[in-house]
């Protein structure tokens, strides 16, 4: 990734099917965060890992990706998430990383409407916010990042299938896939 300075120190853990990086967000209060790369499938002889991110629930050891902590350190947390990408490629040089937002599924809007205070009509305003953050970062840094990584843009055909194309800056995607050149 582009130079990611001012990020939190991460701890790496091997998982049965991937890797996890944890760190402590020390904004208003200490919150344990986790970035998990979970193997999902093969694509053109490469292993694809889904990037999952959120607060780590210590009791269940599960990532809670629907929560917004508002801990006052969002930029540092985001830089820390990005700092794990080169680390994963050091471990798995031929990997493909897929990024999707946990707020992008069709069921998200339905669940959101039950508690939302924004009174959205047909379109949920909170849908797709997370993939938009990653897409915005790629857009702003595309030229620099493209010297090291190939990017694909993905369209969710259904929850189990994504159609990909070479990434076109300015196009809105449901997923971003990247791999080392």
Give a written overview of the molecule.
- With 181 residues, the chain is of the alpha+beta class.
- The chain has one domain.
- It is built from three helices and nine strands, in the order βββββαβααβββ.
- Strands 1, 2, 3, 4, 5, 6, 7, 8 and 9 form a nine-stranded mixed beta sheet that branches.
- It holds the Pfam family DUF6934.
What can be said about this structure in brief?
With 181 residues, the protein is an alpha+beta fold.
Short descriptors:
single chain; 181 residues; alpha+beta; 9-stranded mixed beta sheet; DUF6934
State the order of secondary-structure elements, H for helix, E for strand: EEEEEHEHHEEE
**Oligomer kind:** single chain
- Biggest sheet overview: 9 strands, mixed
Question: Average pLDDT, to the nearest integer?
Answer: 86
Structurally, the number of domains stands at 1
Global structural class: alpha+beta
Q: How far apart lie the N and C ends?
A: 12 Å
Number of strands: 9
Helix fraction?
A: 10-25%
Approximately what portion of the residues adopt beta-strand conformation?
Answer: 35-45%
SS summary, helix count: 3
| Overall body shape | globular
Question: Would you identify the regions where 5 or more consecutive residues have pLDDT less than 50?
Answer: none
- What is the radius of gyration computed over CA atoms, rounded to a whole number of angstroms? 16 Å
């Amino acid at each position: 990734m582009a130079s990611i300075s001012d990020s939190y120190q991460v701890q790496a853990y091997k998982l049965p099917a991937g890797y996890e990086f944890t760190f402590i967000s020390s904004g208003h209060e200490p919150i344990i965060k986790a970035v998990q790369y979970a193997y999902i499938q093969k694509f053109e002889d490469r292993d694809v890992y889904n990037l999952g991110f959120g607060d780590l629930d210590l009791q269940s050891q599960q990532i809670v990706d629907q929560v917004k902590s508002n801990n006052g350190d969002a930029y540092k947390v985001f830089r820390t998430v990005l700092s794990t990408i080169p680390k994963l490629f050091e471990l798995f040089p031929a990997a493909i990383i897929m990024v999707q937002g946990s707020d992008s599924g069709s069921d998200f809007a339905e669940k959101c409407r039950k508690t939302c205070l924004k009174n959205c009509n047909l379109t949920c305003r909170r849908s797709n916010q997370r993939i938009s953050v990653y897409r915005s970062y790629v857009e702003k840094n595309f030229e620099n990042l493209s010297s090291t990584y190939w990017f694909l843009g993905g369209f969710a055909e259904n929850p189990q299938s994504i159609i990909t194309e070479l990434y076109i800056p300015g196009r809105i995607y449901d997923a971003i896939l990247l791999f080392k050149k």
